[in-house]
Protein 1
Amino acid sequence: MTALEINADGVLNQGTFIPSPNHDARPDEAEVKLIVIHNISLPPGQYGGNGIIELFTNQLDPTAHPYYAEIHTLKVSSHFLIRRDGSVLQFVPCGLRAWHAGVSQWQGQERCNDFSVGIELEGCDTDTFTEAQYTQLQQLIAALKKRYPIAGIAGHSDIAPGRKTDPGPGFDWSRIA
């Protein structure tokens, strides 16, 4: 297996790139120094469909599922999504600011989107993640650390406590230590 690598444009050398319009430039002084781990499933608790891709590309059909009617107007994205089978999708180059963290703070610094890379794991708070996901996550973290001065890894719940709960109790933090 070839090691994952992030190129100079901030794009993963392996995986599938699906551009999201939901991004903008990072502030000039911002360095990528934080990895934020999330979970997502669309519809909630269901895996394998195109709902996540459609959400991140503003193509979610509000009539396809009752929950979609509530969220179809959101403008959100993440840099990466790791599916249950370990496949990796990228939506935003790492040099750009994806819209994944929302109102957030890490080590006294607000606006985590400015200096972080978001990694979504296909899953939910109540399920465990797959071996394939942990393997790809470990490799993706190594590639990000090789390219950027990563100083920390946090869950969405760590940077937005009380507002977010992911990656949830099913995530085994010891697998990325």
Note: The longest strand covers residues 34-40.
Protein 2
Amino acid sequence: MSEDTTPDDAPVRFETKIAVLLRDDLAAWQRLNVTAFLASGVTAAHPELVGQPYADADGTGYLALLGQPVLVLEGTADLLRTAHRRALERDLPLAVFTAGMFATGHDAANRAVVAAVPGAQLDLVGLALHGPRGRVDKVVKGARMHP
């Protein structure tokens, strides 16, 4: 058996965690959009987290996905600011999504919106991080599972 496979009934406990934290007042379409963007940031920073490509029984191939679960949480704007600060204090790289990014249409404009505001004043609607389980847990402490 290779390193990335286990028997179907064996529990897998990852040493790291991927967490997406969303502001609790977002519309459904915004939650989905922000989650997709933030997960792509974690994936870009950590390509080793991507598993192998999929294939169905007919041999049709599909794209590879992240190889571990993504925990999606929600919290207040205050909690997002706190989580942002905690992550920076713990040297955990973050992906961020701000309210201003909803009004842009491309990556350069998104980066300009973020660059225009000091970090402590970002109007965060979501953030994502990957790191050791305990450190990530401390960053998102107080958040609840997304419904």
Note: Residues 28-45 form the longest helix (18 residues).
Protein 3
Amino acid sequence: MKSFFHKMLSVAMATLVLFTTMSFTLDMHYCGETLVDFSLAQNAHTCGMEIPQSENDCETVVPEQSCCSDKQIVVEGQDNLKLSFDKVSFEQQAFVATFFYTYINLFEDLDKNIVPFRNYNPPFLIRDIQKLHETYLI
């Protein structure tokens, strides 16, 4: 049980480190108000309704507003993984040690069933008192 717990904890910690250090970019292409395409690995494909740029630079035409738009969301991962525990105070160390000690002791079971009166003999029965006084429990 303890080995299984350690393995599960190590897998959870490894996935936590993986996802906190991973960076990714989400590209989205909107046509009007509707989402046409999104991509995690490459640029999102367009819907083909963009206004083409004029090839003639001498021509000055006021460009029309396109109904399409591109949005990009960038999530940066954590680069610095070496955390320093030099600034932990004595009170914090005592709290952590006490917490782990009490938490681990919650799950300890008793090795055997303890019967507190096992070593004591019952008293000797000299007379049957209920029969003597003719008092019976119904």
Note: The chain has three helices and three strands.
Protein 4
Amino acid sequence: MDELVALYASGDLAGRVSGVATRHEVRSANLPHAATAVLLRDTSGRIYVHRRTTTKDLYPGLHDAFAGGVVGAGEDPFDTAARELREELSVTGCDLRECLRYWYHDEHASYLAYVFDATYDAERCTPVVHQPEEVAEGWWMDQEELVARLADPTWPFVPDGRESLRRYFEWAGGQG
């Protein structure tokens, strides 16, 4: 059975659910939904970057810095974020916080982005282990190196991840 996804009122940052559709319907009609994105940072500030598998339904084979996915019908975005971090990278035990939300739209996706970060402490968190169906490979990268790579528009990086990182770094810069 196709996964049921919560639909959201387009443009509404409050996150009001407006209906339900199958994942296939959401993808084929580019319906407005919600998705979480969790940026995993270690205690020295490095960011975990990975390459998506070529079998992913959206942006296959591209690099990404977020673990995340669509918010299911009846699911809370915080719970989705924790679930996706656990499913994609096997990471649990980290402090997870919502940082910002915004609407993302392109020709492939239209969703309310719930952007989180999680601090990875090897003494408290479980080790990073990739889900083979979603993550082909991954590594820790200094923020400066990631920003330099993102400045190259030919680097194969998910477009929504580029936008989320831009907004996250802007948000984080205003936190200090």
Note: The mean pLDDT is 95.
